[in-house]
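ugh ok fine here u go
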Amino acid sequence: MKPMQYRIESLGECRVESPLPSLVAGAKEEARILQDATLRELPADASEPASLELSGPMSKLYFDPKNTRAAIITCGGLCPGLNDVIRAVTMVLWYRYGVRDILGLRYGFEGLNPDLGHAPVRLEPELVEDIHQQGGTILGTSRGKQDEKQMVDFLQENRIDILLAVGGDGTQRGALDLADEIDRRGAKIAVVGIPKTIDNDISCTERTFGFQTAVALSQPSIDSAHMEAKGVRNGIGLVKLMGRDSGFIAAYASLASSDVNLLLVPEVPFSLPKVMGFLEKRLEQKSHAVIVVAEGAGINLVPTGGTDASGNLKRGDIGIFLKEAIKNHFQQIGRGVSVKYIDPSYTIRSARANADDSVFCFRLAENAVHAAMAGKTRLVVGLWNGHFVNIPSTEVVRHRKHIDSAGPLWASILSNTGQPNLA
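structure:
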């Protein structure tokens, strides 16, 4: 990717003095973070290396806080930290910038479709002060697209200057479509994304909120599977975790547990006969086994059909499939096994964020507000090389992040579990 691809678009010249203290505002202007911090990636000539714009407050603003109306939407599936983000956006706009007109739009992009009748929520500190203590989102959420022209009509008719879109790659694609329509009309509305995916599969950011909480909350299920497996002869504990296209939760949860003997993820193919052969040997040696499988693993083994509201392919349940396949295999070879299957997915998705994710949510939201108030648009705030950065939305939606089967993370998995190549 060329360096100019990382340039952030702006609505225009910033002329309004920031209300933030001078020691804070402007401290990060023009600062950039290297895309690749290794020396080998620096160009041999004197040309500028690829870099990302550092997030932070500006000394001059595009929007005048006393005349600014901001709105926030939460989209897609539930994820720990959504309420933390809503609270952070409200608190930063209200207390740091003095913005008094903040709207929470209900049920994702549906909130921009007046035909659906979802009345906006007026966000104030008193309303949001305790919402971080509960899971879910007080604004509700939805999947799927709405008509861009109708949504921009809504933004203009309601005099909304800033739209903060909280969601995954599908949400950010929708936000880009909105920004395109805004550009066609010559309107001055900032569209800024806050990356939300529990699967941690959004590219150009080291992590997304909810991921750390999901890894931590996976541990009790893996512990239970381990105890159930050890409690009987030839016991197998099977845990299915989130990860439609990327197996990061399953991988990190397995590493954190160190009780997992077999990990199956979407990025690494496996054959059912080799899985069964591995389990036969494992039970002969240890009399028990623990398996973690990501929901998108083994797509070639389970039936698929149709798409959901977000355009994702509907897949069969790999967890249920594996449970039955294991039982049938060992029954056919005349060897009794006890398979205990655990799926904590919805329990995890609806939980409140842990301390680490809660801090991360606040800082993501804070930097998104800084960018929006400065008139920056068509961007997503992320974390790169330890810094919060502004990333062009076009780069974020270009592809999903995946586990590299030849990389160090998968090598750590193989060392930790002891599993062989099962392709």
